[in-house]
Design a protein that fits this description.
The chain is α/β, with parallel strands linked by helices and about 325 residues long. It contains six helices and 19 strands. Strands 1, 2, 5, 6, 7, 8 and 19 form a seven-stranded mixed β-sheet that branches. A five-stranded parallel β-sheet has the order 10-17-11-12-13, covered by helices on one side. β7 and β8 form a beta hairpin. α1 (about 10-20) packs parallel to α2 and α4 (about 150-160) runs parallel beside α5 (about 180-190). Homodimer. It is an enzyme of class 1 (oxidoreductase).
């Protein structure tokens, strides 16, 4: 029986682990196949407070893990197949571990960025291919870059990236965009944004130094074209990692866990969510860490209320 189990080891889960471990709650953290989350696929992180010269993503996650271990957090590797939320304590079936039982559960499984699935893409993640303009835009100052996507987030990222890039080319596979009219008007009014609509991405082209362009097919003519650029930002959305919950916890239409505003509480008492699995807006390491702190404090308060109720009885 654990007082608290944390599923996921990105900034949110590790921050929750640090807070719970320091509160002598001896949390168990279950790591999946990619410990550390999306930051382990990034290179230099310059916008996480406290690191004046920046820090490599994997190093930041390793430091956070060691900090949690220092205070007594336990880490085990496994894949959570299912969670029984019908009664408390909650039961988890974990591949490679078996059944685990806990009084509180913190879900910090994050969201997985959608990729195009074309040649050269995964090979160049961190070498010019990115899914986060806020994280990586600074590295493309005065360079030409590409944004792939046609929704609000793609146009928002294109506009943001014009702060740094000399030119931003927006590539979309259809002639019409899915973005709202106000976002389209804003982007079309930006002189630094050029348009490559009705183009299907075929391959990320790169040299030993990194990305050099994106090969696309002109859907109208069938001809292949090369759009030269130093970076390719893929902005086609994310998948929240909530499939293992089997609909037991309330989510929005896109699968993100719904929490009570101002807290990390879900619709089930004793289950909390933090990080990108419940964040549809910010998706930053620092906001994930902050929500991890909230989840730990909410879980600690919940455990205290149970103990006080037991004493009263």
């Amino acid at each position: 029986m654990y007082k608290s189990i944390i599923v996921g080891t990105g900034p949110a889960g590790l921050t929750a682990a640090i807070y719970l471990a320091r509160a002598n709650m001896s949390p168990l953290i279950i790591e999946g196949p990619q410990p550390g989350g999306q930051l382990t696929t990034t290179t230099e992180v310059e916008n996480f407070p406290g690191f004046a010269e920046g820090i490599m993503g994997p190093e930041l996650m390793d430091n956070m893990r060691k900090q949690a271990e220092r205070f007594g957090a336990e880490f085990r590797t496994g894949w959570v197949n299912s969670v029984d939320t019908s009664s408390r304590p909650f039961k988890l079936e974990v591949d490679g571990i078996g059944e685990l039982v806990t009084e509180t559960l913190i879900i910090s499984t994050g969201a997985t960025a959608k990729y195009l699935g074309i040649p050269g893409e995964q090979d160049n993640v961190g070498r010019g291919v990115s899914t986060c303009a806020t994280c990586d835009g600074f590295f493309f100052r005065n360079k030409e870059i590409i944004v792939v996507g046609g929704g609000d987030s793609a146009l928002e990222e294109a506009n943001f990236l014009t702060r740094f890039a000399s030119k931003v080319t927006l590539v979309h596979r259809r002639e019409e965009l899915r973005a709202s009219k106000i976002m389209q008007d804003r982007a079309r009014g930006n002189e630094k944004i050029e348009w490559a609509l009705d183009r299907t991405p075929l391959e990320v082209v790169a040299s030993e130094q990194g990305v050099t362009g994106l090969k696309v097919r002109n859907n109208a003519t069938g001809e292949e074209e090369l759009i030269e650029a130093s970076g390719v930002f893929v902005a086609i959305g994310h998948h929240p990692n909530t499939g293992f919950l089997n609909g037991q916890i309330t989510t929005d239409a896109n699968g993100y866990i719904v929490t009570t505003p101002g807290t990390s509480e879900t619709n089930i008492a004793g289950i909390f969510a933090c990080g990108d699995v419940q964040d549809t807006r910010y998706k930053q390491a620092i906001t994930a860490a902050g929500s991890g702190c909230m989840a730990a404090m909410d879980a600690e308060k919940f455990i205290e209320s149970l103990e006080h109720s037991s004493v009263a009885l």
